[in-house]
Backbone:
């Protein structure tokens, strides 16, 4: 057996995937600007992607902020720098952890749901049915989800930032002996507009990734229940990896001096 | 007279498997043609090629004399407005109530007001023998036979010129299958549409067709008026319509 065959095969598969995904993305972007715009569907998706993600995003942000405060206190303590807690918490949450944690949670919740729904529509011929009813499936299914996710994610991350900082505040004031007023003053004085805006830009990019990977994997699901299951898994895994990779890339771009 | 649907030398392969190997087919306006053929002979691929869901590798597809093989976007949407289709599994949108399923092509495809589209949907539901209260149910709450009726109502909602039926009686009991066959035959006549159906149910094929064609080995191997099917003189057709295991058609037991 040729030892290079499996390497070649998987390289070809990867290239085919990249090609298909690029074409899918191009078609979807072209469909965003073409009329008609389905306002009703965009509204529905904002509820499903944004509003219903609030509890999970809020809870994870709260505990992340709390753990962060505790770690910075313990780490800073080694150098007698434990007073730095509020500054590092707000920096860490707004620049990195807020967008990334929210992105990963929404990827788990929303990318999976989108892939499962569209995948089921695919295997039950509902997507073909859209075509026969003179409705473009990309326009009807993909565009509203993309728009809703890109709009919702910055809002979710803004809320995650506030709750994350609040989590740090609760731990710092309740168990680390910080004074509430000073903690808040240090937080507000230290955070810059760039810290927050950079996180919100990341959030919009993550929203795009989540909706795109959910839709792409749903549209490309094959077979029956198992195919839909595979599409759901692929959507969550690929969007999570892409979010972390994009996060690194965006950090480099946004903070390079 | 220009044929309503015309396929010239349509070929399609998936990987190394040739599914359509030069299909030539003509459907005249206001006739009902049924394509028969075994499972996996490419009947569905042929329908989906005409609808543009699958792109053929070679050949030409004409609708009303217009070449639609390679059109996209708005031009494709415009041609699609001539079509209605009843899917094998119904393919009803499970997130929408029944009336909105029926009205879908009117609201989304043609931009009709919801209230007006709802009235038309209710008329179409009545036409397939369903009462108005069914309109507010969701597809999962319906039996298989009712789902087929809703699918039929959706297919005829926008008064299409061409209706496709993909295995319309699959999964129904014999009596319900006959009811659906009657409905198909009468609605196609009512609407004055051209119908193209695929099935392997001979009772259904005889009932809803003016003409029958048989697809085998990726080609149309026989076609003629429905009445002539029993005297086709074609051993493949004879074997198929009598459902015999012995004959020129060898079933591939292993895929």
Residues:
């Amino acid at each position: 057996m040729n030892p290079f065959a499996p390497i070649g095969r998987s390289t070809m598969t990867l290239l085919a995937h990249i090609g298909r995904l690029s074409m899918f993305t191009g078609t979807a972007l072209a469909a965003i600007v073409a009329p008609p715009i389905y306002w009703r569907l965009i509204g529905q998706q904002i509820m499903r992607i944004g509003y219903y993600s609030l509890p999970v995003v809020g809870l994870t942000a709260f505990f992340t902020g709390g753990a962060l405060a505790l770690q910075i206190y313990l780490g800073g303590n080694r150098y007698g720098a434990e007073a730095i807690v509020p500054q590092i918490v707000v920096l860490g949450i707004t620049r990195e952890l807020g967008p990334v944690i929210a992105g990963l949670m929404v990827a788990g919740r929303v990318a999976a749901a989108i892939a499962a729904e569209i995948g089921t529509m695919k295997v039950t011929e509902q997507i073909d049915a859209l075509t026969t009813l003179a409705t473009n499936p990309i326009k009807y299914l993909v565009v509203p989800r993309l728009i809703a996710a890109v709009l919702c994610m910055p809002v979710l991350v803004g809320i995650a930032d506030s709750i994350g900082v609040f989590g740090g505040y609760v731990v710092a004031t309740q168990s680390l002996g910080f004074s509430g007023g000073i903690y808040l003053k240090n937080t507000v004085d230290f955070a810059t507009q760039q810290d927050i805006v950079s996180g919100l830009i990341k959030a919009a990019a993550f929203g795009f990734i989540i909706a795109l990977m959910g839709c792409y994997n749903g549209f490309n699901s094959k077979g029956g229940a198992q195919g839909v299951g595979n599409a759901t898994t692929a959507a969550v895994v690929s969007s999570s990896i892409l979010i972390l990779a994009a996060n690194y890339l965006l950090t480099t771009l946004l903070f390079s001096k | 007279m220009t044929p309503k649907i015309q396929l010239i030398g349509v070929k399609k392969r998936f990987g190394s498997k040739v599914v359509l190997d030069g299909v030539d087919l003509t459907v005249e306006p206001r006739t009902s043609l049924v394509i028969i053929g075994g499972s996996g002979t490419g009947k569905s691929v042929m329908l989906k090629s005409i609808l543009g869901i699958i792109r053929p590798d070679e050949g030409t597809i004409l609708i009303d004399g217009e070449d639609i093989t390679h059109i996209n976007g708005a031009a494709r949407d415009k041609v699609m407005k001539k079509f209605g289709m009843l899917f094998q599994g119904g393919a009803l949108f499970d997130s929408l109530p029944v009336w909105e399923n029926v009205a879908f092509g009117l609201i989304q495809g043609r931009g009709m007001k919801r209230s007006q589209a709802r009235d038309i949907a209710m008329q179409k539901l009545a036409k397939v023998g369903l009462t108005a209260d069914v309109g507010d149910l969701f597809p999962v709450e319906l039996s298989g036979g009712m789902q087929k009726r809703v699918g039929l109502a959706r297919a005829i909602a926008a008064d299409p010129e061409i209706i496709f039926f993909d295995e319309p009686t699959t999964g129904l009991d014999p009596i319900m299958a006959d009811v659906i066959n009657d409905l198909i035959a009468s609605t196609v006549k009512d609407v004055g549409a051209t119908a193209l159906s695929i099935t392997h149910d001979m009772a259904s094929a005889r009932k809803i067709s003016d003409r029958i064609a048989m697809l085998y080995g990726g080609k149309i191997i026989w076609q003629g008026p429905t009445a002539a099917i029993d005297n086709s003189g074609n051993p493949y057709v004879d074997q198929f319509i009598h459902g015999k295991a012995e004959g020129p058609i060898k079933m591939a037991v292993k895929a």
Q: What stands out?
A: The two ends of chain A are 52 Å apart (CA to CA). Chain A touches chain B at residues 36, 121, 124-126, 128-129, 131-136, 140 (CB under 8 Å). Chain A is about 85% helix and 0% strand. The first helix of chain A runs from residue 5 to 33.
